[in-house]
Design goal:
Elements (H helix, E strand, L loop, with lengths): L6 H6 L2 H10 L18 H10 L6 E5 L7 H6 L3 E6 L2 H11 L5 E6 L12 E6 L8 H11 E12 L8 H13 L5 E2 L1 H10 L3 E8 L4 H4 L12 E7 L11 E2 L3 H9 L1
Parallel strand pairs: 1-2, 1-4, 2-3, 4-5
Antiparallel strand pairs: 5-8, 6-9, 7-8
């Protein structure tokens, strides 16, 4: 990726203020920031996941760290934290807030697909509310490269095939595309098959059937036929190799709806 990555402009144009507003209202229920949409999930959701599948001792990389929203949660686990974000505005906000904090080691402007860290640098990696905006097979390859064998990877994203009557999900997909928001919908089970085929172990999976279920903590442990979001936790194996493409800019649900139009 060059420094002229076209995604950068989107994330630098008022996105800090927008995402702060979404986080400020986080929790179950309807959004006041985006009329007709569900709220984003609050920190309690993540606290539950990290308690159920704890971090490894040591270091953590937060991919898509924004202003360091989640850093206090990591500090509760006595981790040494680094963060990256594609947005210069987000990185500036994070550095301003966390400058001089002993356990925050590095905050860098970077894409997920070209991480500025050496091989096997981290004991944990989180990519929360960000993976769907990446070129996922390239990003996951980088996640594996910069983590050590036995590291834990926590990844959330959007699934390619959600319910046909999930009006909020469909509206969010169409609206994001109209704004130039870089969305990618995962072949989630295909990704898991690729990861397990390399020897990485799926420790836990949460599948959220409809938009808003993540914030409401309404999940299934076994993948239903259709679902909207996922939270996967992997334990990195001894070796890794590049992944095949596993996502598309259009969901299968959208393509089916378009085909019926």
């Amino acid at each position: 990726m060059s420094s002229e990555d076209p995604r950068k402009a989107y994330w630098n144009e008022k996105y800090v203020e927008y995402w702060r507003a979404r986080v400020a209202e986080a929790g179950s229920g309807d959004s006041a920031v985006v009329q007709g949409d569900a709220r984003t999930e609050d920190d309690e959701v993540y606290e539950r996941v990290f308690a159920a599948t704890p971090f490894r001792t040591g270091s953590l990389l937060d991919v898509g760290c924004a202003w360091g929203r989640m850093f206090p949660l990591y500090q509760q686990h006595s981790l040494r934290v680094s963060g990256i974000d594609i947005s210069a505005a987000m990185v500036e906000a994070a550095r301003e807030q966390w400058a001089g904090t002993a356990w925050v080691e590095r905050i860098e402007e970077s894409t997920a697909e070209r991480l500025p860290f050496d091989d096997a640098s981290f004991d944990n990696l989180v990519c929360l509310a960000t993976f769907d905006a990446t070129y996922q097979h390239e990003a996951m390859g980088e996640f594996l490269r910069v983590t050590r064998p036995g590291a834990r990877l926590y990844v959330t994203g959007k699934h390619q095939h959600y319910a046909a009557d999930d009006a909020q999900a469909l509206a969010a997909e169409i609206g994001a595309r109209g704004k130039g928001h870089p969305n990618h919908f995962t072949d989630t089970l295909g990704l898991i098959v690729q990861m397990e085929g390399q020897g990485h172990r799926l420790l836990q999976a949460y599948y959220f059937p409809r938009r808003g279920d993540f914030a409401a903590w309404n999940y299934q442990s076994d993948a239903p036929e259709r679902f909207y979001e996922y939270f996967l936790i992997f334990e990195r194996g001894e070796r890794w190799q590049p992944l095949a493409p596993c996502a598309d800019a259009y969901s299968r649900t959208f393509r089916e709806q378009e085909g019926r139009a």
